[in-house]
Design brief:
Layout lengths: L3 E6 L13 H7 L6 H5 L13 E9 L4 E10 L13 E8 L2 H4 L1 E3 L10 E9 L2 H4 L3 E8 L7 E9 L11 E4 L5 H4 L7 E9 L15 E11 L11 E8 L8 E2 L10 E11 L8 E8 L6 E8 L5 E2 L2 E2 L7 H12 L5 E6 L4
Parallel strand pairs: 1-14
Antiparallel strand pairs: 2-3, 2-9, 3-6, 4-5, 4-7, 7-8, 10-11, 10-19, 11-14, 12-13, 12-15, 15-16, 17-18
Subcellular location: Cell membrane
Organism: Oreotrochilus melanogaster
GO molecular function, one term: neurexin family protein binding
């Protein structure tokens, strides 16, 4: 059924510590979000200030240096955030969507006490032109609050596939409220086809080499469809797997790399033993897909299979955040011992 397989032991007892031990918190720190910049495109104070005003900028692509340039000139008539003091401290932020994690954000300096800031700054992205043409530019204006959450002042979104690249002039654009695509549609990262199975301790009869005294979780990663295409040739992808809260080398497994394919077939099975039935409510299987490059691998998307309670062995953790689909998939496995449960789950930012 699979062309590669991994089998490792998984021990939970060393993680069953109270927060006062200190060593547990260091374990949790190593399970931080894969890409911090991903969250900031959604975070902030939306809705407390009505979007108004305009922004002047120009777009250009430097063929020689393979660089996308956003020349941010100025803004006019922005909303006032602090009504009492009659002030706003605005700055401009840009993302290339949907691939926020790879390209990251760029932002201008902060101009204090003005609703008509002048920037004259260039925000630069090193990116191939063919890859740029499948992106959208999200340009937003924010009030900087060093003591709290920054306030959203408006945005504009441009489909770069239809942009007139002969137009290098500075132009004015009206700022709009938060777009639905920025909130919902930009995070499509593909779907993973997989099966999982739980084998309870001793469920197959007396203990023998093929029937260990502890339970097993089997994970069969079949294929992934519609990955983000980061290069014209496609992506060189592989899948990582951890069973959290264990982030040690014993927990870590990965598939081989499938080159130049946005629909890779992995057909890889991983078996984790050392499971007891009560561990299933506190553990989380994290599967992440990565683009392989020489210097650094790039996060493409992932799933987390668990109960999504926010707790692991009584301790609050940020990675126990499974979606409804992921929770339902895990619950079905828990209720159907020794049976393969098939699923097709969307990849997401973690």
């Amino acid at each position: 059924e699979s062309d590669t397989a991994s089998e490792i032991s998984f021990q939970f007892h060393k993680h069953k510590k109270t927060p006062s031990t200190g060593s547990h918190s260091s374990d949790m720190a190593s399970v931080s979000s894969v890409s911090g910049s991903v969250l900031s495109v959604y975070s902030g104070d939306f809705g407390s200030v009505d979007a108004q005003g305009t922004v002047e900028f120009a777009l250009d692509y430097d063929e020689k240096n393979r660089e996308f340039q956003v020349h941010v000139s100025q803004c006019k008539d922005l909303a006032v955030v602090d009504e009492k003091k009659g002030r706003s401290d605005p700055y401009v932020k840009t993302y290339l969507l949907p691939d926020k994690a790879r390209m990251g954000k760029r932002k201008t300096s902060v101009k204090k006490r003005t609703v008509n800031p002048i920037y004259n700054e260039v925000l630069r992205y090193k990116i191939e032109k063919m890859v740029l043409l499948i992106q959208k530019l999200n340009l937003s204006v924010w009030h900087n609050d060093p003591l709290g959450r920054n306030s959203f002042l408006g945005e504009i979104e441009i489909d770069l596939a239809s942009w007139d690249w002969s137009n290098r002039r500075l132009n004015w654009y009206p700022l709009k409220p938060r777009s639905l695509s920025a909130v919902n549609g930009v995070d499509h990262r593909g779907v993973m086809n997989l099966s999982i199975k739980y084998v309870p301790p001793g469920s197959l009869g007396k203990v023998c080499p093929k029937n260990p005294p502890s339970g097993e979780v089997h994970i069969w990663v079949k294929d992934v469809k519609d990955l983000l295409q980061l290069r014209p040739s496609g992506v060189d992808s592989f899948v990582k797997c951890y069973v959290l809260p264990d982030t040690s080398k014993k927990s870590y497994q990965k598939t081989r790399v499938i080159k130049r394919d946005t629909n890779p077939v992995f057909n890889h099975t991983i078996v984790y033993d050392g499971f007891h039935t009560e561990d299933l409510k506190d553990a989380c299987v994290e599967l992440t897909v990565w683009d392989h490059e020489k210097l650094t691998n790039h996060f493409l998307g992932g799933i987390r299979l668990g109960l999504g309670t926010g707790l692991s062995y009584g301790i609050s953790v940020d990675w126990m955040d499974s979606t409804q689909e992921e929770v339902a998939f895990w619950q079905e496995m828990m209720s159907a011992a020794n049976e393969w449960i098939e699923g097709l789950l969307p990849l997401r930012s973690l």
